[in-house]
Design a protein that fits this description.
This protein has 238 residues and is an alpha+beta fold. 21% of the residues lie in helices and 39% in strands. A hairpin with a 4-residue loop joins strand 10 and strand 11.
Length: 238
């Protein structure tokens, strides 16, 4: 099995959880929508290209080796928003559309937004049959991305090159090991491994959980559930 493996390191990242009310949380494991979105940005796909975006999101599986989930940072955030009555019946696809009202008709919304500091993840991408791009094409896109890449939010760019490589292995852990050998590092620093149905991790799961991060419609910001398996390989920081 061939995998595209790359490394995500950042001073700041935010992997969005289900947002309810004023709190915008961040998981310690990158969401599948963020990883697929990163590939889409590298390829130069735009938000309005719904079918092309859907093809990428549905054609690749992502396993994540967590080297460091990072330290939680909570940001007190304010934003201007119109009332629901103003939004009703109006087009508000973008943020610019949303606040295109007289200033006196806008309200201030208070929220808490979580970020992760000093994150470090290995990512393995597995192509499904009929995928629109080969792993080598994706590797080339990550080396020369069309749009700026970021870790969940635009304010969180990677702090180091991704060093993408196509690696063969019987399972994800073998691919991580092969990648580490080629990079002259060690794969033993992976503390946690997360993967979806359809991937051979090379290790049994310690737990399985549902995450609502599977894109169903980009234009409407709609996401569906998926099952994610997690294996604890060692204590983080050990």
């Amino acid at each position: 099995m061939s995998y595209l493996v790359f490394r995500l390191r950042g001073l700041m990242a935010s992997w969005g959880e289900v947002a309810v009310g004023e709190h915008r949380g961040s998981d310690g494991i990158p969401t599948t929508s963020a990883l697929a979105g990163l590939l889409c940005a590298a390829l130069g796909l735009r938000r309005e290209q719904e079918s092309a975006l859907q093809a990428v999101h549905s054609s690749y599986l992502f396993a994540v080796g967590v080297c460091s989930e990072g330290v939680l940072l909570r940001d007190y955030h304010t934003a201007q928003v119109p009332s629901r009555s103003l939004l009703k019946g109006s087009k508000h696809v973008t943020r610019k559309d949303e606040i295109a009202f007289p200033r006196h008709e806008l309200n201030t919304m208070l929220s808490m937004r979580d970020h992760r500091q000093e994150v470090d993840h290995l990512v393995a991408v597995q192509a499904q049959p009929g995928s629109p791009y080969t792993l080598e094409e994706l590797r080339h896109a990550l080396l020369q991305p069309v749009f700026v890449l970021y870790l969940g939010r635009k304010s969180c760019p990677p702090c180091a090159p991704l060093h993408p490589l196509v690696v063969d292995g019987q399972h994800v852990l073998a691919a991580f090991s092969g990648y580490a050998t080629k990079q002259g590092t060690s794969s033993s620093f992976v503390a946690k491994l997360a993967w979806p149905e359809g991937m051979n991790a090379g290790v049994p799961a310690d737990l399985s959980q549902r995450r609502q991060d599977r894109l169903t419609h980009r234009g409407a910001w709609q996401y569906g559930d998926r099952v994610e398996h997690v294996a604890m390989l060692r204590q983080e920081g050990a």
